[in-house]
Amino acid sequence: MAFQALANKRKSIRRFLDKPVEDSKIKKILDIVQLAPSAGNLQAYEIVVVKDKARVAKLYEAYLSPSRHENVQAVLVFLADGTRCSSKYGDRGATLYSVQDATIACCYAMLAATDLGLASVWVGAFDEEKVAALVNAGSKRPVALLPLGYPAIDPQRPPRRTNLIYNESL
Question: Which of 64, 66, 48, 14 is nearest to 132 (CA)?
Answer without folding.
Answer: 48
